[in-house]
Every structure is written in C-alpha cells, then in structure tokens.
Specification:
- The protein is an alpha/beta fold and 401 residues long.
- The strands form six sheets. An eight-stranded mixed sheet has the order 13-12-9-14-17-18-20-21, sandwiched between helices. The protein has a six-stranded parallel sheet with strand order 3-2-1-4-5-6, with helices on both faces.
C-alpha cells in the first residue's frame, strides 16, 4: 500500500533540496503533499513542489477554499507521517512552545500522526542551549529526529547543523515504515514515574523517579504500531503523542488503572512504585508538638508487577519489569524475575554515581529465561527503542511457534 507523507517546508536554504527529496520518495512509492511556510517560499516555489509532488501545495491558514475542501484538521490526519524539512531553529522553537500561528504549526498541533524532523541551521544555532532544550522537549513528546550532519554550510562555517542529504532522509523514512507496523494490532500497557503515598495533606512518601524512561518506552511501543496506554504517577514529563495516558497518584490508584487497561498483549512496569504506605493517612497536618521523634506505621502496597504477571485470566503475552538497584544489580534482579513471575526484568543501577534517576542516560541489563544481556550506556530514548524492538522480536518468534 502506498504511504503518504505531509511535508512541511520551512525557511532555510536547505529547502532547495526538497524537490529532490520528493522525487526520491516518489521513486519508493511514497506520495507527498506539501505545506510551504512563508519563509520557506523565499527559497523554493509552490510550483516546483507541486510539479514534483503532483499535488496542490498548501500555504494559507485562512484560505476559505482550502478550509472547505482540505482544512488543517484533514491535512493533519490524511498522512501516515508528517515530515519537516528543513526543520529550522525557529520552527522547532514554535513546536516546543505549542504555537499555532500559521498553517504549518496549526497542523502540527492538531495532528495525531507521528512527526519526523530534519534539522538544518548554523552551527552556533544548533549548539545554542535554547535549541538543545527545545529539541529535548520534542523528543520527549515522541518527535523523531534525522541528523543533522557535520559539514560545510551555506554560510561558509563548518560544524554540526548541516541537514541530512535527501537520500539519508528517505532511508530513515523507509526504516520507520518498515518497523512502524511491527506491533500493529497489539495492545501495550506501560507504567511510569513514581507513586505518591500520602502521610498527611502536606507530606508524602515518594521515589526520585522522573518518568523519563517509562515515557520513552511508551513512545517507542506506539511508534511500532502498538495501541499503547501509559499509566503514570506524578511526573514533569510531557504526555507522549499517540498514547492514551492515565494520571494516578498512589500505588493503589496505579493498580486499578492497570487492571482497567486489560486485556493487553504487552506490559512494561517501569514505574518506581512505593513499596510501603502509611497504615493510616492523617486527615490533618501532623504537628511536632515538642516531640523529638515520630513513628509512622507502614504497610505494604499491592505488588503491581507480580499481580499482572500472575493473572490466571487475561495474562499478557509478555510482562517486563524493572529492577532499580544500588548493589549486586544482576543478582537481585534475577531473583526478582523469579519471585514476581514476569518474563523479563530490565535491571539498572540507580546508585548516586550513575545519575540514573532524573538523568538522560541509562545502563541496563536485560534478564530473560535465556540469561543476561548487558547493554551499553545509552540515552533513555535509545534504551526504549531497543527494548521495543526486542519486544517485537519476541512476539514475532512466539507467533511462529
């Protein structure tokens, strides 16, 4: 089946490569419809884009004819992928801020489809802290990034910021489409973030989990086509696009939300669930009243991973847990896999020196019935993508018998 791309051409000199990109996409049986921004029109004409794409070029948000025939909502939905080439520092900043002040950004805010960007800008702009911050926000929302590359630029400077060549962009798109449906017709449930267990209206028991890893896993599974539900404790991470998100507070809330999401094919329990809660939550703020010590009586919270692993009915095909340890990581995680009854455990070292909780990187070990896989240090996004592909491989193998 022919794939369709909505190509947003923004205002950079690399826009002159878009006709070649469209031609290469067409040769791979990928159809293109274009949105041309006002700044992009300074570098490439609507006629040239229309000639190569064989379709109308859209450029006005408030065009009555377009709105009656193909409005911004329809434009955002009638594509398998939205691609921004070149993705300038300006449009990345507008995307990160959620602006909708022209046709391109309105479409991006209205879409429920995956989005891919190919950044192109001066090396100083690429290395600026604001650009790095905006790009990190977009990655957390599930935006896929191609490049940029290191090389000589139109301005005469040399460094990172040069847009990837059209052939490399096409290859990245083909790779996405070849993997994008591997988990189609599969349902996935991911838990993420900490849980908050109230002591009184002012205080709580919580973990240091940021939710970065769990949110990234939900993104990665959704990108492979899985209908994904993310059950998240309090986190500052943005909700991933294309994912159904349920926000909870306590471990008991999280368990209820997980059960409500059944049946599912895949479960990844990445949340740092509090093991304990107070036996009795005080309805008023506890006072010191001159007392040097205060004893809190704690009771165990429900074990979400064990509960989902040991379901007699509606047990998922694959249940993956996380083991956050500070010492003897492999030994503790291996024991946890057996006692919880899950299929896999992703073990990671969260000792202070690793900066795992709240950090951008993670070093994990995947423990299965076949043994231990030691993965190198990667970003949490890379860990998520590798885990999602590993899950797809396992389900493919299971389907083959």
């Amino acid at each position: 089946m022919e794939k369709r791309i909505l190509l947003i051409v923004s205002g950079g000199i690399a826009a002159v490569k878009c006709p070649d990109l469209i031609h290469r996409l067409s040769a791979r049986n990928i159809a293109t419809r274009c949105i041309l921004t006002s700044s992009g029109a300074e570098f490439v004409t609507p006629l040239s884009l229309a000639t190569f794409s064989g379709d109308k070029v859209y450029d006005e948000l408030f065009c009555l004819t377009d709105e009656s025939q193909m409005g911004h909502i329809e434009l955002s939905r009638r594509a398998d992928l939205i691609l921004i080439v070149p993705a300038t520092a300006h449009i990345l900043a507008r995307m990160a801020s959620g602006l909708a002040d022209d046709l391109a950004t309105t479409v991006l805010l209205a879409t429920d489809k995956p989005v891919m960007v190919a950044p192109a800008m001066n090396v100083q702009m690429w290395e600026h802290a604001a650009t790095a911050h905006n790009l990190e926000i977009l990655k957390q929302r599930g935006i896929m990034v191609i490049g940029p590359e290191e090389g000589e630029m139109a301005c005469g400077e040399y460094g990172f910021g040069r847009m990837s060549e059209p052939e490399d962009i096409v290859n990245a798109i083909e790779k996405y489409f070849s993997q994008g449906n591997r988990l189609r017709n599969k349902r996935a449930l991911v838990t993420s973030g900490p849980t908050i267990e109230a002591i009184d209206p002012a205080r709580c028991i919580a973990s240091r989990s940021s939710g970065k890893q769990g949110h990234a896993i939900a993104n990665a599974l959704a990108h492979l086509g899985a209908k994904t539900t993310l059950v998240s404790g309090p986190s500052n991470e943005p909700d991933p696009s294309g994912v159904s998100v349920v926000h909870v507070q306590s471990a008991r809330d999280m368990l209820v939300a997980c059960k409500d999401s059944l049946p599912t094919d895949i479960v990844v329990c990445a949340a740092a669930v509090s093991d304990w809660r107070t036996k009795k939550e005080s309805q008023s703020k506890l006072k010191k009243n001159g007392v040097d010590q205060k004893v809190l009586e704690l009771i165990l919270n429900p074990d979400i991973l064990a509960t989902l692993s040991k379901l007699s009915k509606e047990r998922p095909s694959l249940v993956v847990g996380f083991a956050a340890e500070t010492e003897d990581v492999i030994a503790y995680a291996t024991k946890k896999r057996m006692t919880k009854g899950c299929d896999w455990i992703v073990a990671n070292d969260i000792s202070t020196k690793t900066n795992t909780f709240g950090g951008e990187n993670n070093t994990v070990n995947l423990i299965t019935s076949d043994g231990v896989e030691n993965w190198p240090k990667m970003t949490k996004t890379q860990v998520a993508e590798k885990l999602a592909l590993r899950i797809a491989d396992a389900l493919d193998q299971s389907a083959k018998g």
